[in-house]
Structure formats: structure tokens, C-alpha cells
Amino acid sequence: MRATTRVLGMLLAILTASVLLAPSVLADPPFRLRDYVTDSANVLSTAERAQVQSAVDELYTANRTRLWVVYVDTFSGRTPVNWAQDTMNASSFGDQDALLAVAVGDRSYYFQPSTSMSASDAASLRRNNIEPALHSENWTGAAVAAATGLTMSNSAGSGMSSGMSSGMSWMTLVIALAVVAALVLVAWLWLRHRKHNRREAELAAAKQVDPTDPDALATVSLDALDDLSKIIVVDVDNAVRTSDGELALAVEEFGPTQTEPFSAAVAAAKTALAQAFNVRQILDDAVPETPLQRRDLLTRAIVAAAKADRALDAQSDAFAKLRDLLINAPTRLDALTQQMVALSARIAPAEQTLAGLHKQFSEVALASVAGNVDEARDRLAFADQNLSTARNLVSRPAGDQTGLIDAIRAIEGSLGQAQTLLDAVESASADINRAIAGLPAEIIDIQNGIDQAAEQLAQPNTPSSPELGAARDAAVQAVADANKDGSTDPLGVFTRLTKADADLDRVLASIAEFRQEAQKQARILEQALFTAQSRVKGVSDFIDTRRGSIGSEARTRLAEANRQLEAAEAKRSTNPAEAIAHANGASTLAAQAQTLANDDVRNAQRAYAPQYGGNNSDLGSVIGGIIIGSVLRGGFNGSGMGGSWGGSYGGGRSMGRPTSYGGSSNSSGRDYSGGGGGRF
């Protein structure tokens, strides 16, 4: 029993102490603000906190006013104004800082506007917007109302009530909005008309480009490509439909054998057109493509459709001739008969020419034409047989002329070959003599190429060495054959020489181009490295002599620039292209670091100038990091050099004065008139 009494006594003492200590535990004394939205009372959800943060960010973007929102449970027994001002002093508030402090448990608040808001506007904003939201425990709404009020006050300089201060203000706003809307509409119509005209001009230019050449289409704008693809697939589809109908009639008239080339062309056109339509379907579906993907698809559609059109055009003349051949068959047979008679008359002179060539040149030199006269005689005999067959078929009725087209084609082919054979005999003498005369010069030319190849192969790291060696060896062999067989087979020798010379020249040209490009790339790399080294060194020296005022962003960019420069040096000899990319990246990063560092120094000068007056030497010492102790004690929110000056002045916390230079309890020197608060 006595033990139970002791336990109960202890529990009662603990409970009493807990009750007595609870207020001190929950108390929230003034403190230095580190975030724009501080929710020690845990009244905001994640989404609500994001909404408040967004309003604070929009306010800063609109007029560079920094609103700090604080929710605590209690003001620690202090009045709202004392708690708020102590917090603002501890947080080094400046003219562009505003505070909304809410003690949720006390149901008290305090709102301190920035100096750009008048006291009357601030009172109106508290009375009509902030306090009603707090009264209904709309914690988010109160902060958003404060941010909105500060935005409107700084933007328009008007009173901040729940509505406009007068009917005239509303009317003025409506008129202004109407004027702006009209101007926007006029501008939109003008831009639309201009865009239409530009697009028409681009389409007209695109129609002049070869649609089968992807490289040429690469110069066309994306909109013009889209318009061109729509036009060309429609035109080609119409052409395919028309060709398909005419082909069906031709097959009935001439049969599938004679019309096979045209059937193949139409089939290929249909396949290509189907590919083009498939690409258009991909472009027209609901799945969006990147501009690069869209350009690739449009180019594919245009090229496929254009090639299908070209294939049809290539067969159009032959198709027309086929349709006309039966109608004009008698006239055509008369012309072929005359051609055969003329060729037959050339047989005897060709025999005499060939006999004379055998007396002048060796059998090897004449091997290509030795049997030409006999072959030509055989072709003429075959043509005569088919002429008889064709004339017999022409005399028959139109529906009984099967084989006439084949006979005419056979006559045309045999007569064409006979003419080629006889022409070769007549030109053989001139060709052989020309080859004999050109051999010395060709040998000299190819020998120069052989000497150049030897020089290149003697150099280290010669590109395409195996290919160059093979071309050089072939050229050497061709020269040896020319010296050996030039008199007996001049045409054959000359042909082999010219081929070996062309192959060798091609390889030498590619090597020369490679070396020229390598030299150009080396010059570019040296310039890129020099530029990067100069920029990195310049920024490094700038930061080193102003280290007391430059934050992490500039230093981070500089460190990355150094890393890129080291990578460029490492790739210098093994991969010049990558080295150039790294060097250019280092230059870009160094330039960014310089810009950030310049901003940091300017911000530091503005912040410290009032404290040091005209003493430029002391100010310079602080900027240069010589009087670093004072900066660390009084500036950068008591956290040393963490964060950049750009962060402090571009949306971060205001920088306080160095404490070593004294000042009142209001360390920022800020006049806090205009603020107010109370119970809600």
C-alpha cells in the first residue's frame, strides 16, 4: 500500500511538472529565418506549403519583394510586434523584405510590409484580406493574400482593399484590358497573315527542290515539308490510279509479257506510295513527335512518293510507244526494211577495213573486233526473217496479230546490234592509234602517282595505308604491262592503265583531304584550348582577388570549367574532336562563372557600401576576403560563405551588416513603420 502511494505521488509530480513546463517547451522565441516559408506549427500540408511558396516566388519575380511567412505555435509571451521585429532584426531584413508571422496557438499575427507599400495600403490589406483568412483558419489564404497585396501595391501603387478603391478604377482597368485585348487581336491577325505568306513562299521554294534528294530537303523548313508531303502524296496517288487503269487495258491488248515492265513500275509505285501514306498516318495520329522525328518522317514520305512518280514517268514514253506500235506497224516495218538494206551495204566495206587492220595490228589488238563482220551478217539475217513474219502478221485482222510486237522488237534489236558491230570495225583503227599515242603520257602520269604513294607510305600514321598500298601495286603492274604489251595490245593496256591511275588518284585524294582536315582541326583545337585556358585563368584570378564576395555558383562553374579543360588536354592527341568539344565547354562555363562572379561583387558592393562610407580600402578588403572574420560573423545569415550573392539578392535571404562595425539592435537599419497585427 505504501509503495502504491509512492508511485502515485511520483506520477502526480511528473504530470504537474509536465503541465508547468509545457508552455516553455512549446514556446517559439524569435529566430533567424532560413526559408521563405517556415511552418513550425505544422498547419500546412505539402500541397498548401507549395501554394504559399509559389505565391512568394511570384511576388519576387514581379517586383523583387521578399515575403517571409512564419507559422509558430506561440510568440513566447511577447507581443506580436516585439516578436516580429526581433525576428526581422535577427534575419537582417532590408527595404525589400516583408514578414507575415502567425502564432497559431495564440491566435495572434503580425504583418510587416516592404517599404514600398504605404501604411494605409498595409492596414487595408491586413483588415480586408489577411485577418479574415486567419480568422477562418485559412492559413494558406492569408499568406497568398499577403503576397498578392504586395504584388498589386508595388505594381500599381493603388489601395489594397478587397476590391478597387473606386468605381472609376474598375472602369479604367476594364478599358485598359479592352485596349490590350484589341491590340493583341490585331497583332495576332497580322502575325497569322505574315505566317501564311511566309509559308506560301517557303512552299513555292520547296517545290523547286529535288524531292528525291534527302539532302536537298534538309534545307526546307518543317512547315513547308509538311505542306509538300501532303501535295505530293495526293498527286502521286492520282498518277498511280490513272496508270493502273490504263495498264489494265494494255494487258488485255498486248498480253502480260509485253506489258511486264509497266506492270512492275506500277507495282513498285504502289508500294512506295503505301509507305508514304503510312508515314502520313504516323504524323496525323494523336501521338506527338519531336521536330527531329517529324522532319525525318516527312522526308521519308516525300522521297518515297517522288521516287514512285519518277518510276512511272520513266515508263511513260515506252508505254506510249507500245500503244502506238500496232497502229503504226506498217510504217515502222518500211523504216526497218530501209535500215536493214543500208546496213547490208556496209558489210563488204567493213570486211575490207578489217583485212587492212589485220595487216597493221596484231591479233591481240584486234581481238575485240575480229569477228564483228560475221556477227553483223548473222544479225541482218535474223532481222530479215522477222521482217517476213511481221509483214505476214500485219496483213491479218487486228484481233489476229499476236506476235507482231515481238517480231518488230526482234527486228529492232538485231539491226541495232548489227550497226554497233560494224561501227566498232570502222572506229577500231582510230581507237588503237589514239591509245598508242596516249600511252607515253599516261605512263608518266601514273608514275607520278606511284611516286606520291611511296612518299605517303613512308610517313608514319598514313591513313588508309593498306588501300593505298594495293592501289600503288596495281599501278606498278599496269605500267609493267604497258611496257611489255603496249605495241601488241594498245587498247587493252591503255584501259588497264587508266583504271589503275584513276584508282590510285582517288586514294591519294582522300588521304590529302584527310590530312588537310586534320591540320584544320589541329588549328581549331589549339585556338579552342588557348581561349579556354585564358578564360579559366582570368576568372580564377578574378575570384581569387574578390573571394570575400563570391559565392558557390560562380566557383562551381569555374570548377567544372577546369574539369572540362583537363579533359580537353587529355583528349588532345587521341581524339581532337572530343578535345575541341571539351575546350569549348570550358570556355562557356568560364564565361558563366565570370557573369555570376560579377553579379556577386556588385551585390556585395551595394550591401557593404553603406557600412564603410567612403572608405574604399576597407570595402575592398572585405570584397577581397581580407577582412573575412567580420563577413563571417555578420553576413550570409551566420552561415559563413554558404550560398552565392546571387542567391542572397535574387530570391535568398538578405545579407546583414558585419557585426564588428556595430549598430543598434535593429541590425539591418530598417524602419519597421507600417507594420501591424493583433488577434484573429
Could you explain how this protein is built, in words?
The protein is mainly alpha-helical. Helices cover 72% and strands 4% of the residues. The chain has 21 helices and 5 strands. A 5-stranded mixed β-sheet has the order 1-2-3-4-5, with helices on both faces. The model is unreliable at 1-5, 11-26, 157-168 and 628-668 (pLDDT under 50).
Principal-axes shape call: elongated
Q: What is the share of helical residues?
A: over 70%
What's the gyration radius in Å? Answer: 47 Å
Number of helices: 21
| Domains, number | 4
Binned strand content: under 5%
N-to-C CA distance? 52 Å
How many E-type strands?
Answer: 5
Order of helices and strands: HEHEHEEHHHHHHHHHHHHHHHHHHE
Largest sheet report? 5 strands, mixed
Coiled coil: 515-571
Signal peptide: 1-27
Region (Disordered): 656-680
Protein name: TPM domain-containing protein
Question: How would you summarize what this structure contains?
Answer:
This protein has 680 residues and is mainly alpha-helical. It contains 21 helices and five strands.
Defining key terms:
TPM_dom, 680 residues, transmembrane, coiled coil, transmembrane helix, disordered N terminus, Diaminopimelate Epimerase, Chain A, domain 1, five-stranded mixed β-sheet, 21 helices, mainly alpha
List the helices and strands and how they pair.
Layout: H1 2-26, E1 37-39, H2 46-63, E2 66-72, H3 80-90, E3 97-103, E4 108-112, H4 119-135, H5 139-156, H6 167-206, H7 214-217, H8 222-254, H9 260-284, H10 291-325, H11 329-345, H12 347-360, H13 372-394, H14 404-458, H15 465-485, H16 490-544, H17 552-570, H18 576-612, H19 616-623, H20 628-634, H21 645-649, E5 676-679
Helix pairs in contact: 2-5, 4-5, 6-8, 8-9, 8-10, 9-10, 11-13, 11-14, 12-14, 13-14, 14-15, 14-16, 15-16, 16-17, 16-18, 17-18, 18-19
